[in-house]
Amino acid sequence: MTSITTSAPERPIRTAVIGYGLAGKVFHCPFIEASPDFSLDYIATNDPERRTQARAEHPNAQIVADSNELASKADQLDLVVLASPPGVHLEQGLSFLGRGVALVVDKPFAASVAEAEKLIQRAQEVGKALCVFQNRRWDGDFLTVKKLLDSGELGDVYQFESSFEHWAPKANSRWQDLTPASLGGGVTFDLGSHLIDQALMLFGPIADLRSDLRTIREGGGNDDASFVELHHQSGVRSRLWMSRIGALPGPRFRVLGTKAAYVSYGLDGQEPALASGMLPTDERYGTAPEETWGMLGVSAAGHPAPSRIPTERGNYPAFYEGVAAALRGSGAVPVPPEDALEVLRILENIRNSTY
């Protein structure tokens, strides 16, 4: 990997974002624009309504129609962020790597293991950074789980339960709902990418797995209510639920150990805060109100009642801080593509055994 070429190290990293749906609008553009390490130079979207919105929200960025138009500007860029559907990541990624531009690729990394391997190989050939966006590594509740594991307060963890469920009873026109699983569609590829990545981060490689993928809603083109169980080589079993039709979601995390357990409800608050317009620079950003804190302890006679423990502060900005360090040659990318490749191997295994 090579760092960006510049005679002035303090020059902002010239950046473009492809796609202005949820990912581009909420998870990428705000952090790029808020960081002095970056300049948000271009946004590519072919949706007229989103083009208008992007112009209003990012007046200093040039809005272009698509990745093809953006490719003609490649000599003006150091970094391109693919906030586009996974089915086009290979084509877009190869195009910009071939033009000497580093990449951040939103999850799912690609539509298949073979496509992801091609992106990794090409990045190595041209010596450009390639990083996969896994922002949920910096969720406050996930950071809390990591802290509890490091402290030993749970004892030996034997079961990790994680769910990501929301209520969207009707399939809509989003690519996540309509794209076939072979192109990276479905709730397992979408939300499962986060849950599997988190489980691997905490408990390491797997030896086996089982899964149950279901399509409940009419009009959907893929799975929308799924379960995956990972058998880690460490002995821990991760049980993961993901659903678009979860009317009453279960615990976000339930971690069972030989000394105590930790249970939390509700999703990390960074996404809704960003969607409401809060900037990452706001002093309230990433903090969790006390009523949302998880519970730690043992619910049994002879033990003190479980108690709420503070949720660690969420820190999505850390991702782009790591990207900047990598591009400036002072650190590794925050999410190596090899990590995302392992997640994709598991997802592909699940998909191939189900469809």
List keywords for this structure.
22% strand, eight-stranded mixed β-sheet, single chain, 11 helices, 355 residues, 14 strands, alpha/beta
Mean pLDDT across all residues, rounded? 94
What is the total tally of β strands?
14
For the terminal residues, how far apart are their CA atoms?
Answer: 37 Å
Q: Approximately what portion of the residues adopt beta-strand conformation?
A: 15-25%
Give the low-confidence spans: 1-8
Rg, Cα atoms, Å: 20 Å
Number of H- or I-type helical stretches: 11
In sequence order, what are the helices and strands, one letter per element? EHEHEHEHEHEHEHHEEEEEHEEHH
Seen as an oligomer or otherwise, the chain set is single chain
Structural class: alpha/beta
Strand order of the largest sheet: 8-9-10-7-11-12-13-14
Molecular shape? globular
Sketch the major β-sheet.
Answer: 8 strands, mixed
The portion of residues assigned to helices is 25-40%
Structural summary, described in words:
The strands form 2 sheets. The protein has an 8-stranded mixed β-sheet, with helices on one face. Strands 3-2-1-4-5-6 form a 6-stranded parallel β-sheet, sandwiched between helices. It is an alpha/beta fold and 355 residues long. The radius of gyration is 20 Å and the shape is globular. The N terminus is likely disordered. A hairpin with a 4-residue loop joins strand 9 and strand 10.
